[in-house]
Amino acid sequence: MKHQEHYITILLSLDDPDIHSTHILTIDHLASLLHCTTRNVKWIIRKLQEEGYIHWQSGRGRGHHSTLTILHTLEHVLSLYFEQLLGQGKLQEAAQWLQHPQLPHPYIQRLQYRLEQQFGLHIEHHGSQTLDVLRINQSRILESLDPAFVFTAFESHLIGQICSLLITYQAESQTFKPQLAHFWESDDTDRCWTFYLRKGVRFHHGRILTAQDVKYTWERLRDLDSPAFWQFTHVESVVIHNDYTISFYLQRSDPFFLNYISSLCMAILPHDHDIANKGRQLIGTGAFRLTASSEHHIVLDAFDAYFEGRSLLDRVDIYFVTADYQADRRYQLFRQNKATDYTDPAQVNYKVIGCNFIMFNFCKEGIQHDPKFRQVIDMLLDRVLLTEQCSDYWLKPAYSLFPWKSKQTHATTYSLEQARQLLQQTEYQGQPLNLNYLNRAENHAVCVWLQDRARSIGLIINLCPRDSFASKAVMQQADLFMGQEMLEENIVWGLLNFFSNRSTYVRQLLNPAQLQELDNLLVPFIAEPLPDYSKHVEKIEQFLHTSFLFIPIYHSNQKLLFDPSFQGLYPDAFGWINLSKLWIKPSIQSKD
């Protein structure tokens, strides 16, 4: 395959790479183009001639030039090479060719379509066995799959497919449902919570789950100083009564404790298996077991012994490919290697609870400590104008974390001249400010839009995109951050986690005095098992918004397009599907 890659690179460097055309080329030029030595170039030329790709006439003597004659079209060889990459599962390498600056646009469209066909639901035949295989693409690298440190929506979704919890929260009924624990109870003071485990539940490595695994999971959060351990600092002790009974003893009454137990950080792990390699060797009791893991590809296979019933899917292949792939068509169906006609797809719309926002780095000296300067940024963020001018991304103006509150808000809009006048009242002296954001198309478009408006009033903003979530070094360098918060189905717990988990922007960017004031406002949230958050959140948002500590920008409404043959396709709060419930309804011909 390497010689095909060399051939394609040569042809893309030519102005007119038509078949049978002849071009004057030197060995030195080809060595520079192919990033190799002249000796290797001569070997490549000989190989291309033997394979019938080119005819090479070596120039002999002064004034005689070497010539290369093209014997195969670029389209033919590129398509063949692309298919070989796809057949070998090298989707990342294939996607990189789509970014080649010399690749003609019609070729990009055809190859992009072939790449998209690799994703979605495929039916594979292995002898007499038929497998339903879902292939998903993610356009960024995989973060940690360790429940103690997981922070992103996609990784949380994967852990939920691999691992199980003691209990789960049900958004529809606002109640808790048994999972690994079939029953639980608390004493009269809500200081002792006891859980009774199912019997016969197996981990993916074969061992039966016991109460020791539950205690190990909690102790691991504590010993690793997990950012999620804020939920369990008031646990005094964890006592195993027998293999299937365990109690948590608290230092104070806590009717809200079930919300913590149902959070993903308490996904139960086996005590005899230490997670290695940044959490990618995860073992749980969930519907899928992790059977392969690399930087660009992980494989989930259905776990036949899953205690809630085997998944209807057989395998899930997840690729991490940087490509312009349509996420809303994640659940396509391909039959006989041909894509289903999407002239009339089924569609699921879902609203994300949360928003994209701007925050400021109060742990660093700078103009961002001036409330008037922060107000300038808020004035520049004309949400209605933003969503109109970035209409490709289906955005809605945000003035709150909650879409329904934003819809009811009648916000004041300001002209650029008003923003300029307020900026002149600050001590801003023209110094550039760094705006950090996760490098996605939607985020980049919004940040460029803000940068242009800031420039028009004399405010210089440098854009600092990143490919993964911010490290401490990145946090220290940036002045502004654009982030996104999507709340869990358990909204109250999601709010608490957003404001309390030290991995969030809130805990990392606010100063100690600001955090203390915020923490005081959070206390009423946990006074009852499932509190009414609406009566408390107003004070928190007022605290954050009045001083422009947290500036909501926009909400993202999402949609999923899918083949009508799919069944069990109901997105969660993050737009992900419970893979164990997904299945294909086959076409059944009526009997004549």
UniProtKB/TrEMBL annotation:
Pfam family for this entry, one: SBP_bac_5
Keywords: DNA-binding
Entry-linked SUPFAM superfamilies: Periplasmic binding protein-like II (SSF53850)
Sequence ranges assigned to domain Solute-binding protein family in this UniProt record: 176-477
Membrane-traversing stretches: none
Domain Transcriptional regulator SgrR N-terminal HTH span(s) in chain numbering: 22-102
Name of the protein: ABC transporter substrate-binding protein
